[in-house]
């Protein structure tokens, strides 16, 4: 069930502002037909999540087409114009380079890059985030970007758990329990649910679950008895958290004031635009921020 | 120069004067007497890092024939690990791994004598693969503490611990968590942070607690859940905060150990136990956790009372548990 601002909502009653197409419709239908309740503060928040899920799928396709290669952490490589390759195989954003430029470069100059499947998922999530946030906000949020597996994801507010429903744009994990220990980079494969019965896994491509399992079977140890399988949890970015920094949110919140309080609890009112322009300053110097 | 002093010299040169001096000293010794010099590497006190550093000299000068089986096999393992392509066909994959017992002791030697060195990325890869072969193929548990220590060293040096962590979890040995938890006692905040990251899946352990509190929480959780833990396959490949072990709540409720690999209850269940479980599976997850925790505590503090309680109808068990846990 979809609940917007405290009221149950049917898909038919939603405005035409929502993205169209079969995948978007599928996302809405799964939410609407679920026993779980999907709460949104406004229709624009629902729209944001749908758009971002579509952007995740689009980014997965873009990575597949980018010619970026699969590599373990020992042999990772990146474009030195935008990234510093660290000793642990991570990519650290070079000082002065906007995160948006560096992220887009991975998808444009893919042949200069090689990385593991978990890092690929973070890259996909960053590109999708860039597609739904104002570039200025993206660069402010992710100014200290560091790509290394799942480890550095703070500003994506990632959630990893068994969900009520699986939705297109979710990231799932195919475990390979009997992987050859000489190639632990194939211990499993993170895959983006493309919404059409296929998954994108970096290094494997876009395949059905059976196709991904078949690929992982090629990397099992001799005498293996346990077949690869799809694990139950799903990984998602914090849609609600990221929505706060989106265009849609700014429109939905237009006309509202933000009240910030300093350490002495002295109140100051600022406009939404002022807040976004000095977001970092408010975040460090003020202890409470309230949307009026 | 006698054999023992030469061995001492090779090891001493490497540790005191560095890798380049070792290579030069070795070349000099070989030029004097190649067979005798190479055979000095066969001594039991030679460490893996020394052999690794000299492998190019040994190979280019065709000196491998003088090495003993341990060293020859170790170099074959290194070459195999570092070879650029590993085809998936089993015929080629395990060409050097046909002698399990022999390999086991050599892999252990490579890991245990070589783990403290940090010669290069390739070297770390070799050490990582030794660890994964030992924990997954040989189920070697005596190295788990060493693997944990190595993970923390790597973390501190900003080197990859991704595959080591996987190797540790894949050992499917919950006691490995005890070695991790020891780092809650470290004076180094980086160690404590890393330890918290790895054990954050345990209820209430988090960054906001002090490390002593987290250590106590770990010990309590470990004591209460050890017989009921099962491995669920998560690693750092899956999530930032993986959940490698889960508690088989139904096993904990009945006081029966769980299968570490599947989470299934070990042994045959009586009809009464089957009936209890049927009812147990119908209550909410929150209630299951409460009931299993209550059952464990009662069993621990008053076995006789627990035996009476477990024989009462399920709804009475649940009511009493709720009442006594103020739920």
Automatic annotation (TrEMBL), chain A:
The keyword Cell inner membrane is annotated on this UniProt entry: no
Keyword terms of this UniProt record: Acyltransferase, Sporulation, Transferase
Gene Ontology biological-process annotations: sporulation resulting in formation of a cellular spore
An annotated Gene Ontology molecular function: protein-glutamine gamma-glutamyltransferase activity
Entries under Pfam families matching the protein: TGL (PF20085)
EC number, as in UniProt: 2.3.2.13
Stored InterPro entries: Gln_gamma-glutamylTfrase_bac
Top-tier EC class: transferase
Designated name of the protein: Protein-glutamine gamma-glutamyltransferase
Species this protein is from: Exobacillus caeni
Organism classification: Bacteria, Bacillati, Bacillota, Bacilli, Bacillales
């Amino acid at each position: 069930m979809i609940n917007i601002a405290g009221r149950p909502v049917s898909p038919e009653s939603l405005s035409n502002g929502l993205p169209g197409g079969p995948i978007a419709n599928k996302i809405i239908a799964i939410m609407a037909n679920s026993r779980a309740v999907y709460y949104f503060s406004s229709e624009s928040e629902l729209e944001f999540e749908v758009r971002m899920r579509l952007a995740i799928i689009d980014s997965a396709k873009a990575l597949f087409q980018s010619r970026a290669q699969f590599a373990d952490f020992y042999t990772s490589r990146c474009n030195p114009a935008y990234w510093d390759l660290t000793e642990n195989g991570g990519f650290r954003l070079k000082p002065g380079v906007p995160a948006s430029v560096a992220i887009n470069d991975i998808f444009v100059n893919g042949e200069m890059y090689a990385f593991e499947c978990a890092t690929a998922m973070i890259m996909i999530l960053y590109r999708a985030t860039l597609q739904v946030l104002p570039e200025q906000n993206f660069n402010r949020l992710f100014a200290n970007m560091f790509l290394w597996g799942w480890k550095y994801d703070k500003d994506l507010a990632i959630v990893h758990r068994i969900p009520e429903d699986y939705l297109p744009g979710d990231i799932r994990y195919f475990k390979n329990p009997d992987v050859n220990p000489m190639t632990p980079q194939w211990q499993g494969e993170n895959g983006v649910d493309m919404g059409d019965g296929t998954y994108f896994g970096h290094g494997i491509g876009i395949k059905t679950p059976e196709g991904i399992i078949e690929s992982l079977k090629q990397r099992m140890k001799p005498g293996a008895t346990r077949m690869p399988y799809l694990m139950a949890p799903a990984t998602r970015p914090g849609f609600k958290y990221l929505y706060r920094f989106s265009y849609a949110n700014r429109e939905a919140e237009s006309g509202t004031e933000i009240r910030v309080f300093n350490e002495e609890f002295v109140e100051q009112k600022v406009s939404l635009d002022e807040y976004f322009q000095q977001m970092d300053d408010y975040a460090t110097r003020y202890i409470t921020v309230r949307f009026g | 120069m006698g054999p023992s002093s030469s061995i001492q010299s090779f090891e001493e040169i490497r540790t005191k004067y560095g890798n380049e001096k070792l290579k030069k000293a070795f070349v000099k010794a070989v030029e004097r007497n190649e067979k005798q010099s190479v055979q000095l590497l066969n001594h039991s006190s030679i460490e893996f890092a020394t052999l690794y550093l000299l492998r190019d000299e040994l190979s280019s000068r065709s000196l491998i024939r003088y090495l003993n089986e341990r060293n020859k096999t170790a170099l074959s393992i290194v070459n195999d690990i570092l070879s650029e392509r590993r085809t998936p066909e089993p015929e080629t994959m395990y060409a050097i791994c046909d002698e399990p017992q022999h390999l086991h002791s050599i892999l252990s030697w490579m890991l245990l004598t070589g783990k403290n060195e940090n010669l290069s990325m390739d070297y770390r890869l070799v050490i990582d693969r030794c660890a994964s072969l030992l924990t997954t193929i040989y189920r070697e548990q005596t190295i788990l503490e060493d693997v944990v220590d190595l993970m923390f060293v790597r973390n501190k040096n900003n080197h990859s611990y991704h595959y080591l962590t996987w190797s540790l979890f894949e050992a499917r040995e919950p006691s490995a968590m005890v070695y991790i938890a020891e780092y809650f006692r470290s004076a180094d905040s980086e160690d404590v942070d890393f330890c918290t990251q790895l054990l954050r899946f345990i209820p209430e352990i988090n960054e906001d607690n002090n490390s002593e509190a987290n250590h106590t929480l770990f010990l309590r959780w470990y004591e209460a859940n050890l017989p009921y833990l099962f491995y669920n396959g998560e690693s750092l490949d899956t999530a930032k905060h993986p959940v490698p072990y889960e508690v088989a709540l139904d096993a904990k409720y009945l006081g029966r150990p769980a299968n570490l690999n599947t989470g299934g209850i070990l042994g045959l269940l009586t009809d009464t136990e089957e009936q209890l479980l049927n009812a147990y599976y119908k209550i909410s997850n929150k209630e299951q956790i409460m009931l299993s925790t209550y059952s464990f505590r009662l069993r621990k503090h008053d076995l006789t009372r627990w035996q009476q309680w477990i024989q009462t109808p399920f709804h009475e068990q649940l009511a009493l548990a709720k009442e006594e846990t103020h739920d």
